[in-house]
Amino acid sequence: MVKKLFSRLYVGLIILFLYAPIAVLIVLSFNDSKSRVVWGGFTTRWYSEVFSNSTILSAFATTIALALLSALIASVIGTLAALGIDRMRRKQYQVVMFFTNIPLLNADIVTGIALMLWFVRFLPLGFTSLLLAHVTFNIPYVILCVLPKLRQMDVNLYEAARDLGANSRTAFFKITFPFILPGVLSGFFLAVTMSMDDFVITYFTKGAGVNTLSTMIYGEIRKGIKPEMYALSTILFLIILLLLILMNIVPRLKNREQTASAVRDF
Amino acid sequence: MEQTTMTSDSILELKHIHKTFDDKTIIDDLSFQIQKNEFITLLGPSGCGKTTTLRIIGGFEKPDSGQVLFHGTDITNYPPEKRELNTVFQSYSLFPHMNVEDNIAFGLRLKKKSKAYIRDRISYALRLVNLEGFEKRRPVSLSGGQQQRIAIARAVVNEPKILLLDEPLGALDLKLRQEMQHELIRLKNELGITFIYVTHDQEEALTMSDRIIVMNQGIIQQVGNPVDIYNEPQNAFVADFIGESNIIDGIMVRDRLVTIGGVAFPCVDEGFSPNQLVDVVIRPEDVELVEPENGLTTGIVRDIVFKGVHYEIQVDSQIGISFLVQTTQAFSVGTSVGIRVIPDNIHIMNKPISSDEQIIDKDA
Ligand SMILES: Nc1ncnc2c1ncn2[C@@H]1O[C@H](COP(=O)(O)OP(=O)(O)O)[C@@H](O)[C@H]1O
Ligand SMILES: [Mg+2]
Known about the structure:
The complex is a heterodimer. By secondary structure, chain A is mostly helical. Chain A has helices at residues 2-18, 20-29, 45-52, 54-86, 90-105, 108-119, 127-152, 155-163, 168-197, 200-205, 213-222, 227-252, 257-264. Chain B contains eight helices and 20 strands. Chain B folds into two domains: 10-231, 3-Layer(aba) Sandwich (Rossmann fold); 245-362, CATH 2.40.50.140. In chain B, strand 16 (297-306) and strand 17 (311-317) form a beta hairpin. Magnesium ion (MG) is lined by residues 50-51, 167 of chain B.
């Protein structure tokens, strides 16, 4: 009885600290009052303000462009890297995977400052440096998503294609790529999420004049919190939630007829 | 080019192939020729280099030295897609994201054959492997035996000159395996192409092959037709690997006489040096159990097992050697018996000098 009560309390606390703040944020974004404690009725005013504010819109565009572009580039580089790593011998493999894991576990602030120090030597900080930074920290995520797929794949599948007359390129695009595609897609979506999610590295590598949603919100909040920031944060949360759902669904579709035939015509 | 090795019907020839992995020699000076329309089997224990040999022929592995000749043309450096042969892989390797039809059509579509031609070939191939109506099935929905047949169909629609098969029946159960053995022989006759077949199963090799290449540790031990390989193994390894054998140390006292544990056994072999140490090979079915006074030596029956057609008996002989005997007659454990072998059934072999000793059937 006591045990049960205790476990309920525990779960309750988790929900309270993890999800309640987000719920409060969402509720406040519809609050027709500037106060944080008074409910002034339901409104979508803050959302309209978000969409008519050119600073916010441009930060939004930057965020999306940065996320998609960096994820795309990282997907290509990461997939190629995974292909190479997959063929390595045990020792080489372990060394390379060690270095792949460093950026993942490294404190963002260290990565951010290091990248900034590096970029300022040859590049004015701006969208390009930002893109390079995001590509850099996204590559390991793609590698980690693609590699298990390659490890799962029967090496003879690629060889069977060669045996039946395909050159190395055709064999890759007709056989290997469709097989690892779910991994590449998970890697891509994870990279998009990570890019949108990032604040610290972006903050150090963006330069003046360029803002993503997270750096913009940070800047605005220092001037005092406006309710449209709640609306904006809610939008950001929903986009990332959507990406997470996508990432979980895509790999599960891999055995289904639709993806299989979509992939076949690739 | 050595003229002597170029007979007119030779479709494939391997010349002095060497292959090492991590400084370990896997294939050592391997040479053989394959004739057109032959069913040839590479037979040897697991790890002896059969798959590696097949992969060198298929173009998936480059030899460190040596040549692969196809109709006399050096194809050693050709990529797999440029070779007029197809492989049936041990793991079937059907493309999981394609149905049966697309799997079979894979090679033909790459060659840009017409739709009508491809449709014809697919139905021909499916008829050939007795799987009509399976066009739309996915590989995962097929049994092991069916996947195997589709892998064969996928290879043969391309009309290869040579079909390479790597232990294709290894994963199937006994009954299906025997069925497929006959299927494969039928297929080979119907297609009229050369089969290079890899197996570690000596029974399979004896049943199916025109010729067998027995390998061990990357070295050819013997080349010959199944009857020769079975009846006249050239060394103790082949004798032991092809069916069970009694392999006993002996001393070749003089021509036509060998002693085992001090007991003289008349035999038919000649040409060994006097008192040379040899391997004496006797097949279990060639050991006769008689009354103790009629044997060359005597022994006690230690163990008897009924094997369906015959009994398998272990006899501990007086000369300190345990004989494996196959006979249709039953003996009870503990019986004293005489042991006799007629001279014709005693095979005398040189002891291997070292592991790189190589014995090749010169006229094969
Ligand atoms: N790619 C490889 N790298 C290292 N060793 C290998 C490789 N392929 C095969 N070998 C080794 O070569 C030997 C022969 O292998 P294989 O040709 O597959 O034998 P078989 O098919 O007769 O069982 C084995 O000891 C195996 O471990
Ligand atoms: Mg093998």
